[in-house]
Structure formats: C-alpha cells, structure tokens
C-alpha cells in the first residue's frame, strides 16, 4: 500500500521505507516464496527501482522512537479507510 501511494505523489529520486514488521523484510529478502502478496510487493519494488532508489529499513516497534508511535497510529487508522489519503506531515507539528 505504501509503494502504491508513493508512486502517485512523486517525483522522487530516493525512497526510504521504515517498518517495524521484520518478517516482511525477511520474506522480501528470500528467493523461496510462493505467497502472492510477497511476490507482488517484490514486483512493485523491482519495477519502481528502475527509476527510483528504494531502501527498506527495520525499526523497533513501540520503543518511543520519535515519530514511530504517530506513524503506527496513522497506519492503524488507514486500515479502516477504503481509500488512501494524503495527510499533512504530522511529524513537523
């Protein structure tokens, strides 16, 4: 979902995506997977990386890292909405 959204609001020359979901990063890093969701994400990353540098980063969850709790809150709210919405940068407020 993040990749889909990012591709609509560019242009970007470098993207850093941060997640506290370690297992998704591990799944993306393996060659042996039959899960369609993982294959689709890999495909999206490969396609986007032809034009944009993409880096994926793992961060610890719920450790008080600045912005992580806010990002978690927004991500949780986003799962209940049918459409992706652009929000003002909450980390600068």
Secondary-structure blueprint:
Layout: H1 2-9, E1 14-19, H2 22-28, H3 36-48, E2 53-58, H4 68-78
Parallel strand pairs: 1-2
Order of helices and strands: HEHHEH
Question: Uncertain regions: pLDDT < 50 for 5+ in a row?
Answer: none
Share of residues in strands: 5-15%
> Per the principal axes of the C-alpha atoms, what is the gross shape?
globular
What summary fits the major beta sheet? 2 strands, parallel
Q: How many DSSP-defined strands? A: 2
Helix coverage percent of residues?
Answer: 40-55%
Spatial gap, N to C terminus: 24 Å
Rg (C-alpha, Å): 14 Å
Strand order, biggest sheet? Answer: 1-2
Structural class designation? alpha+beta
Q: Indicate how many domains the architecture comprises.
A: 1
* Chain-averaged pLDDT: 77
Quickly count the helices: 4
Protein name: RNase H type-1 domain-containing protein
InterPro entries: RNaseH-like_sf, RNaseH_domain, RNaseH_sf
GO molecular function: nucleic acid binding; RNA-DNA hybrid ribonuclease activity
Domain RNase H type-1: 1-80
């Amino acid at each position: 979902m993040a990749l889909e959204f990012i591709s609509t609001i560019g242009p970007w020359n470098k993207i850093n995506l941060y997640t506290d979901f370690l297992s998704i990063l591990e799944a993306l890093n393996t060659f042996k997977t039959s899960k369609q969701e993982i294959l689709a994400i890999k495909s999206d990353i490969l396609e986007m990386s032809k034009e944009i540098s993409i880096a994926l980063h793992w961060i610890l969850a719920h450790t008080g890292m600045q912005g992580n709790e806010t990002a978690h809150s927004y991500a949780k709210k986003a799962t209940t909405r049918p459409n992706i919405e652009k929000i003002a940068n909450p980390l600068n407020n």
